[in-house]
What does this fold into?
Amino acid sequence: MANVKELNPKSSPQAAFGYRFRKLRETRGWTQDEMAIPMAYSSQHISAVETCRKQPTLRFARNADRAFGLLGKVDAFEREWREMQFGSLLEGFPEYVDYEGRAVEIRLYEIGIIPGLLQTPEYARVLADSAAKRGSIAPEQAGERVDYLMERQAALVRENPPMVFLTMDESCIRRPVGGAAVMEAQLQRLVEFAELPNTLLQVAPFGIGERRPFNLPVNLLTLPDRSVISYCASQSQGHLDRESVSVLPMLTAYHQLQAESLSQAATVAMINEVRKGTP
It folds into this structure.
C-alpha cells in the first residue's frame, strides 16, 4: 500500500483545500482513479492537488463541486478557491460578488485604475500579468483572474440590468496601462458605457482637491429590498459591511462626490481629449 502523505490543513490555504478534497473523497469511498472520471482529471493530477504538489485551478474547483454536489453552496470548493487565490486583499469579496449579481443599483468609486466591471479583457490581462511578474500570484493564475472578472461582467447583462453609477478619480483615465492600443480600447469602452440607458459615468477631477470624500476605492450595492451594503478594499484587506449605521453615511458621501465631479457629458469630453493625446 502506497504511503499517504499527511497534510496539516492549517499550514496553508492550499493544504486546507487538498485536505478537504481528500477527506470528502475518502468519506464517499472513492479512490483517486474513481474520482478521475467525474473530475475529468487524471488520478495523478488529483493526487498532486491533494498533496500540494499542484495548485488547484478554477476548473478543478468547479468540477469538484459538481462531483460532490456543492455547486452554489456556502462550502463550495469554488468559493474556497477564490478566497485562496485572492487572499486577505479580497476578504469578504466572494460574498460581495454574490450580492453584486442581484443588486438593482451599483455605485463604484475607483482610484488609479479602471474599475473591474468596466475593464476590457486586454486591460485586465495586463494588470494580472503584472501581478504575476511581481510574484503576487502564480503565472497560471493570471488567466483565471481575468476569466473571473469577465464572468462578473457577464452576470450584469440581464433582462433587467442594474443601474450602474461609476465615479472615477481622474488618475484612472490618465494612468497608462498596457500601451497605446490597450488604453485606446479601454477608453472607448468607457465612452460606450456612458451611452447605455442604465449608466452614469463621472470623473472626479484632480481640481476638487480636499473635497474628495474617499481616499480608497468604494463599492456600494442597493439590493432588491432597498437595503444597501458596502465593500471597501485597501492594499492589505477588504471589508464587507451591511450595517446601515456605517453604510448610509458612505452613501451620503458618494452623493457628495458626485456633486463635485464632472457631468457625464464633461466626463466623456475629457476622456476623448485623453484619447487624442494617446501616442
Q: What stands out?
A: The chain has two domains: 13-86, 91-276.
